[in-house]
Request: fold
Amino acid sequence: MSDDTSVAGSLEAIYRQDSRKVLATLIRLLGDFERAEEGLADAFAVAATQWPRDGVPANPFAWLVSAGRFRAIDRLRRQARHDASLKDLAMQFEDEAAEPETLSDETIADDQLRLIFTCCHPALTPDAQIALTLREVCGLRTEDIAAAFLTSAPTIAQRIVRAKAKIRDECIPYETPDKNELPKRLEYVLRAIYLVFNEGYSASSGASVTRPDLSGEAIRLARLLSALLPDPEALGLLALMLLHEARRAARATATGEVILLEDQDRSQWDGRLIGEGDALVKRAFAMREVGSYTIQAAIAAEHACAASMAATNWAKIVNLYDLLMHADPSPVAELNRAAAVAERDGPEAGLLLIDAVLARGDLADYYPAHAARAELCRRLGRVEEARNAYGRALALARQKPVGDLLKRQIAELDPGPT
Amino acid sequence: MKYICLVYPDEEIFASMSEAEQGRLVNEALDSDEALRRSGNYVDANALELPESAVSVRVRDGKLSATDGPFAETKEHLSGYILIEARDLNEAIRLAGTIPMARLGTIEVRPVRDLERYEEGFAA
Reply:
């Protein structure tokens, strides 16, 4: 007879640690999300009654997979009494279950990858990919996902229901894409993870600039992915997020006011995360051609490893932006390159480049472009231009702390001729 | 978390069923309760008598009034509820989908709210 509370405690720990892996394997064995979730819930329900009596099995993972599988077959048999069309499927599962499933570490890892790639399938919208991944891969509750995204739980719930229906109706295969397809499909997975991170790191709306729980989930996901599939861009994304995360504590005051890079207390940066991120960047660079996330991570590493703004290797950062413009050109990358050029060659040079981007109209509604322009105008003593650009940025900023910062910057400008 | 599954049958489908069909449906509903019990999700369930049996009660100015019939004159009426324990809203939705009446009407799933006693003077 085992101790009830310790068994309940280990069951809870096993749920947190293993339930997603059990689910990933059950989806493969049972060919369907809903059936697998039913099996998973059943397996833990059986465990909750049996384990306190018989003790925790030697291999809880294999036990749970097997229990979930057989309970699902039981259910199918019962349903087949009302719905004859399920008879064949029940028999097929019984036949398959007769051959014991060997759950090697490799099999388990493959199933987890299958789940990740299915949740981030390009047939699903990015919103659906994120909701599904957070619930099925990370094990977050619908209500928690909704709270993190400042959305209602029924909205997220519907998104998940529709995504699963789409996977079923369009017969999206439960598999890791083959070599040819992998790079393209991996992009979707990485983008979904990065969107989750950004929502947590730089919340798109609301009273607070950061929401650490989502960033933490994104980092956990990227760690899992890089362990399962050590692709350089997966490592690059993990590095990028760790290097951003390292600066979290220094990015805002206790009352939520934004602190710009040049004013941040670098002793507050997390050296352990920086070390890990920097090492990952080096590992990714050593692997093969580098991609956008790895280059962005390399830029973040340059910042994170510099002792001060002045001691930053701006020439190297500009070179990395050149590389980024080659690998993944975008107006935002161009804007950031312009800001780095301003540090390397002076504000005038940076302003010319920013004005060129703005003149094309690409970033007309992007507040950081106007804020960057304002800052360079201020440095050049062009106070009225700076005031106008800050005003434009303020009109576009959606986050309260950013708006407050811009207001402070406007107030600090020289009053100018009266 | 607890969720209540409110069962609203489609009256037309229901009225067109034979006694034997209705009986089979009841058996299915009882099987479904049993399945929820086995999976550890069952908290409570009850079927309700027809809306004609309802009395609507209210107290105004200290006077109690009781009126025949259900509170709202709508086409669909609550015919029962199943209170379940589920990990999250999507699990509650999955479980609601296993309720046989979901095929013959609509199940409204709503989270149960924990009421906390309001402390005077500590209003936020």
